Amino acid sequence: MCKNIGCKYFGLFLILFLITVDNVFSQDKKEYKARTIAFYNLENLFDTINDPDTFDDDRTPLGKDKWTAEKYRDKLKNMSLVLSEIGSSVTKASPDIIGVCEIENNVVLEDLIKEPALLNKGYAIIHFDSPDERGIDVALLYKKEVFMPTSFKSHRLLLFKENGYRDYTRDQLIVGGLLDDEEIYFIVNHWPSRSGGEARSRPNRIAAAKLNKRIIDSVLRLNTDAKIISMGDFNDDPINDSFKKVIKTEGRKRKVTDSILFNPMESLYRKGEGSLAYRDKWNIFDQIYFTGNLISSTNESFSFYKAAIYNPAYLLTSSGRYKGYPKRTYSGGNYTGGFSDHFPVYITLVKLAN
């Protein structure tokens, strides 16, 4: 039982805080509409069929991972469960827009949205095959009842190795459309990895950042008021040069204007939060950032409400050396039946309901 004055004041503050949060959606008896934009690295969502044109041999029944139909079905079940729950604590529904990466093809996406956890959500798919050597792509899932695509394009990232040969990687996907009759653009990314070390691989992510910036600038040249949301697994943290020097994101909300890109993941990073862990260090490679006009919007149009990492207990490794890390499908070469080596991230947008 709380008896001291400080504790009583804390209780009063907590009550007022909860009322304030609730008022975001019902202030002065006004009803607000909330939409969740999510991103999730599905960590090698492959089917079991060997594609002779890509290096997918490990994820086949005879490959290193002994990737069977049963394991594939379990992976689909696990991924669909997570996707159905991201952001539901705020909206009481599954995400309206979902960017994904590390998926092999359109077939696995079709199988994914047919899983019981997603079957009745009304999702559709936008996907292009990329030239990535492993055959992994990015894609966008969206609820047909709330989003109507009007344009989409896959932008190729051209990289070259020291010997002059192409280094094939993922494309960047941009989709424009109407979210509840409001025009918004979504970009889905999966930037080059840190294989070979962060410093050695950095030029590839700088090149990816430059491509992302060109895509954003090309939209803004046509419409200076365009609302653009870029999401993905960037293999960089919010404070790395790719963000701070190339894209020039800002992590402090008070510093953001309509012409500045706001990255809410930067404040989460500085608090020590992470979407993946490596050698006892947490990173936020999974990020969502957007144009400043999503902060300055009026109640009549969508505006940014919150950003978060979705990491409920069931997504965490429960014991051992990697306790607290994301519970992945394979660990140390052994099948564990988990989810992904990344946690999903999401943002919530709100506006006055009609």
Largest sheet: 7 strands, mixed
Task: Calculate the terminal CA-CA distance, rounded to whole Å.
Answer: 45 Å
- Low-confidence spans: pLDDT under 50, at least 5 residues? 1-24
Please give the count of helices.
7
Supply the helix-strand structural class. Answer: alpha+beta
In what order do the strands lie side by side in the largest sheet? Answer: 5-6-7-8-13-10-9
Please bin the fraction of helical residues: 25-40%
What's the Cα radius of gyration?
21 Å
Mean pLDDT score, rounded? 92
**Percent in strands:** 25-35%
Total strand segments = 17
Order of helices and strands: HEHHEHEEEEEHEHEEHEEEEEEE
- Oligomeric grouping of the chains: single chain
The geometry reads as globular
Molecular structure report:
- The protein is of the alpha+beta class.
- The model is unreliable at 1-24 (pLDDT under 50).
- The protein has helices at 5-26, 69-85, 88-91, 106-113, 198-222, 241-247, 265-270, and strands spanning 32-45, 97-103, 123-127, 137-143, 147-155, 172-179, 182-190, 228-233, 249-250, 261-262, 276-278, 281-283, 286-291, 303-309, 330-331, 334-335, 345-352.
- The strands form four sheets. A seven-stranded mixed beta sheet has the order 5-6-7-8-13-10-9. The protein has a six-stranded mixed beta sheet with strand order 3-4-2-1-17-14.
- Helix content is 25%, strand content 28%.
- It contains seven helices and 17 strands.
